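Repro:
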Amino acid sequence: MLRNFAFGFGFDIHPLVEGRKLKIGGVEIPSSVGPLGHSDGDALLHALTDAMLSASGFPDIGTLFPDNDPAYKDIDSTLLLEKTLSLLKEKGYRVYQVDLTLILDKPKISPYYEKIKANLSGLLNLPMGKIGLKARTSEGLLFPPEKPAIIAFSLVVLEENF
């Protein structure tokens, strides 16, 4: 059986500030800081959504869900992901595999890997074995302690006409 695949890459970055919740992959992580953003600022879901849009030929996340639209103010990023999955389905795509990398100095998220992967598995209707998740610190090279931030990268493989 011949299979058609499409690949997409996504990236997101947010400064971390006091008074915001930290959500990663749709999972709330205990933290004194959270991402500054128009939506909930879930950098992992934003990078994932952008990669899916790219692979399927849609405009980027900022074009489809603009930060100057009040409808998206503080929106849960899982809703943006779900809207994107609907667009993919209409176009004949489904998610086949994802590989995700975070750069975040604090807090450590390794204790939450399985919870994040399980949440993504449910959102994407994908076995956990098809979800790669890694986190790294910047070793102080990217984010000074007084300016924390989070960066997320995503590689997505879509299957076409499954």
